[in-house]
Amino acid sequence: MKLLATFFLALFTVASMRAEGPEQTGPAKQTGGGLDPAVLLNPTPDSWPTYNGDYSGRRFSTLTQINDKNVKSLSLAWLYQLPSMGDGMVRRLAGTPIVVNGVMYITVPDHVWAIDARTSKPLWHYAWTSKGGIHLGNRGVGISGDSLYFETPDCNLVALNLADGTKRWSQSICDLDQMYYASVAPLVVKNHVITGVSGDDLDRPGFLEAHDPETGALQWRWSVVPSPGEPGSETWPDADAMAHGGGMTWISPTYDPELNLLYIGTGNPQPVIAGTGREGANLYTESIVALHADTGKMAWYFQPSPHDTHDWDAIQTPVLFEGVMEGKPRKLLAQASRNGWFFVLDRETGKNYVSSEFVKTNWTKGVDAKGQPIPNPAKEPQIPGVLVTPDSSGGVNWAPSTFSPKTGLFYINATRSFSMFYIYDDSQKPEGWGGHGIGVWSEAMLQAVDYRTGKIKWSHKWQTPGGESGLLSTAGNLVFAGDPNNNLVALDATTGNPLWHVNLGTGMSNGPITYELDGHQYLLVGAGDKLFAFVMN
């Protein structure tokens, strides 16, 4: 693809910082102030107040100032580069920025910054003194009232004062000694701060928790893997397998205020790849689960990958929207799952309407009566190896998809890939990672799926394989995506025709967002350690 522009990154803002405390570097113009929790129910166009922009997970904006007619005139408003913090700092913006009252909040592991959303001027910085943990990335913050919440790799939920970044409290949310770590963007729902956990290395069960926004006290915990005698325990061979069952909760959930239900996708069972010691479906790993927000009690579940042996976490955002199925308006939920399948469910009951492939796969024998794929035992990892598609990175990974109610299309930055899957521990009680996949071929494309049928409406193939980014769709008939060659690309949401692109110098590392301030619609993306803000000039 011919490049329209190349940025010379000579001008950027460098924020100074110090550990264990905020640095106030100046007031912001018409910025600051708390977030009325009611706004979380109906976000305003000048904000992006949650990980997905709103509770639905659609990542769709009603803004139209930037549209399919004028997107070619987009230009750079500002560029912000993370300041140097020395060795050990992860300089990758893998989280979604949050925008509230003209202030943007961004994170990397152990660090939070507040910057002016109009200019990128630094306002404050907070650094957590870490006791360890896996520092892969951080997905962002949650905000409500005058408080900001974020998770740390050493298993803490931290609350900061929104105005100046001073610490209010911290609360342990997992056990670092058990190889858990924390990276999820917390979601604030009513008087609950919802947190999740990560960690695949020591065969521990995953869970989701709710905490008091004022004190951090635990309100409820839902364990992904049931205890002996509970519903779902019949899908495990014994109590020992359940106690080491996995199912991490490492992406922020979505929420329906009318039903008061949370929707979360869960991760792979453990041991990873090796399944001989955990015969059965291994509920509720690799599942889409609806939980009552005030109690954590499960309402229903749907399992995209029963008895997973390919590391296909089903943590992809459950996207909520209204639609028509079987001739009636429905409250729907859709997920493009890592196993290469697309599902549409009734989010009140969990009933399945659509199960289809968004990339061609070879690991199933069809679907069961609930619409769940039936794994083909011949495609389970083997000592001599077996060829499976997709590979362990999946048809899509954690990067968020988007749904446009204007086009009725669900957009997926997808990969079709093949991998040889091997077992190197075929004992009856493997531990940790008992196998591995070695990729042999892949291609990447942006897929637009008709939610009513599951069929591909259009497909735009990227020129090279590899890489992926999150997506944003807008009422301006646009879809914004990152391609494998470091380009930010705008496509016609109806036809898939590429309309504009710009090279960022490195691959997009999060999903684009948009907001409007002072009559200007901003398009914001992160790539590595830099944030790029575009406007129409």
From TrEMBL:
<dbReference type="GO" id="GO:0016491">
    <property type="term" value="F:oxidoreductase activity"/>
</dbReference>
<dbReference type="Pfam" id="PF01011">
    <property type="entry name" value="PQQ"/>
</dbReference>
<comment type="similarity">
    <text>Belongs to the bacterial PQQ dehydrogenase family.</text>
</comment>
<feature type="signal peptide">
    <location>
        <begin position="1"/>
        <end position="18"/>
    </location>
</feature>
<keyword id="KW-0732">Signal</keyword>
<dbReference type="InterPro" id="IPR018391">
    <property type="entry name" value="PQQ_b-propeller_rpt"/>
</dbReference>
<dbReference type="InterPro" id="IPR011047">
    <property type="entry name" value="Quinoprotein_ADH-like_sf"/>
</dbReference>
<dbReference type="InterPro" id="IPR030939">
    <property type="entry name" value="Acido_non_PQQ"/>
</dbReference>
<feature type="domain" description="Pyrrolo-quinoline quinone repeat">
    <location>
        <begin position="459"/>
        <end position="522"/>
    </location>
</feature>
<keyword id="KW-0560">Oxidoreductase</keyword>
<feature type="domain" description="Pyrrolo-quinoline quinone repeat">
    <location>
        <begin position="48"/>
        <end position="376"/>
    </location>
</feature>
<protein>
    <submittedName>
        <fullName>Acido-empty-quinoprotein group A</fullName>
    </submittedName>
</protein>
<dbReference type="InterPro" id="IPR002372">
    <property type="entry name" value="PQQ_rpt_dom"/>
</dbReference>
